[in-house]
Amino acid sequence: MDSYIISEDLQLHQTEHSHDEEGNKMFGFIVFLLSESVIFLSFFAGYIVYKTTTPNWLPPGVEGLEVVAPAINTAVLVASSFVIYFAERALQRHNLWGFRLYLLATMAMGSYFLFGQAVEWNSLEFSLTSGAFGGMFYLLTGFHGLHVLTGILLQLIIFVRSFIPGNYDSGHFGVNATSLFWHFVDVIWIILFVLLYVWQ
């Protein structure tokens, strides 16, 4: 009887420890995202200061940025946040094929965003060295694009891992963290879109 109670206590302790470990991982990941937020916020602050204090803010011959294509890109990226949420929900219901399909759709939407950004870069009439505006524009959009690419690679990893039998039976930390990262990337882009394209 005593050995049964001890065994039961050990199992309970292991379960609690496992739960705490996943919670600690997510807390650490949130701290990481907060540190990324500080970097982006410093870039936003720098952009605002330069824009409001630099004479002849736009490079010679540039009257402003085209808005329609970036707005479509923005809509696609924001919509992808809902799609990856559906992927999470599908996994919670143990619907692996639904999870994979939603994840593939999210990756496709993220790739479309990057492709759209590359097309925009190629059509711009200014470069990284075109004054403060050029430097800030390419820094902000490039750094964000790097985060989008990272998010797509993370999604690819959890997609591949979904084919390992029983891989997600014990927890979904990797999926939840990747989804949170993707939502973070989307929120950052909304702020960037307002700063770069709306506030001209």
Unreliable stretches:
1-7
What is the H level of CATH, i.e. the homologous superfamily?
Cytochrome c oxidase, subunit III, four-helix bundle
Number of strands: 0
Estimate nothing, just give the exact number of structural domains. 1
- The helix/strand series, from N terminus to C terminus, equals HHHHH
CATH architecture: Up-down Bundle
Distance between the ends: 75 Å
Largest sheet: none
What is the gyration radius calculated from CA atoms? 22 Å
Global geometry: elongated
Helix-strand category? mainly alpha
User: Averaged pLDDT, please?
Assistant: 90
Q: Helical amount among residues, as a percent range? A: over 70%
Q: And the CATH topology?
A: Four Helix Bundle (Hemerythrin (Met), subunit A)
Beta-strand level of the residues, as a percent range? Answer: under 5%
Pfam families: COX3
Membrane topology: Multi-pass membrane protein
InterPro entries: Cyt_c/ubiquinol_Oxase_su3, Cyt_c_oxidase-like_su3, Cyt_c_oxidase_su3-like_sf, Cyt_c_oxidase_su3_a-hlx
Keywords: Cell membrane, Membrane, Transmembrane, Transmembrane helix
Structure description:
The protein is mainly alpha-helical and 200 residues long. The protein has a single domain (39-198), classed as Cytochrome c oxidase, subunit III, four-helix bundle (Four Helix Bundle (Hemerythrin (Met), subunit A)), CATH 1.20.120. Helix content is 81%, strand content 0%. The chain contains 5 helices and no strands. The chain has helices at 2-53, 68-92, 96-123, 131-161, 173-198. Helix 1 (2-53) runs parallel beside helix 5 (173-198). The chain is elongated and about 60 Å long. The model is unreliable at 1-7 (pLDDT under 50). Belongs to the cytochrome c oxidase subunit 3 family. It is found in: Cell membrane. It comes from Chlorogloeopsis fritschii PCC 6912.
